[in-house]
Task: structure prediction
Amino acid sequence: RWRWRAAGGPDVQALVDLSMAHYIKEIEGIFKADPIEGSRNLMLAIVNQFYNPKKELVSVAQDQASGKIIAYTWAERGQRHAWSTEEMVMVRVAHIDLSASQRERVFLTAQMLRMWEVWARACELNIICSSTVRGDQKAFIELHRQAGYDIRGSICYKRLAPQPQETSKFAQQFMTGEQ
Result:
């Protein structure tokens, strides 16, 4: 029904629209949402990804019938815990069109979790950090728990176990787009 692909510049407005329609209410009262700033930050991340695929990950799920973007995720590297030198993947966004069925939302989230792991391995990073600002976070957190994340409040951490060489080859193909 949908296909994941790397985001491109022409996708930015659809990503901002998706976030504004479904998620901005979650930060109201804390941050002032600025769609122009969001657009700029997304575009910079997409450019970073284009020139250095191991710098940032911005992927979209596009409905194959309508062409509509129904979900996207954005992750970056270069983050560290205050008490560690280990670099980690920090998930910045995991947004899904909330008009999708609950089953589709669960499946899309599970795909994002897997995508983060593949990208982290391609970047040779062992830790993923994902968090949520949503008021209703139970299902999101539970999916992380089922995927082996260690839950600390609304922050989910996963230390990836070493993988055989075959996974590294898969990760390399993922990063280069080879079949």
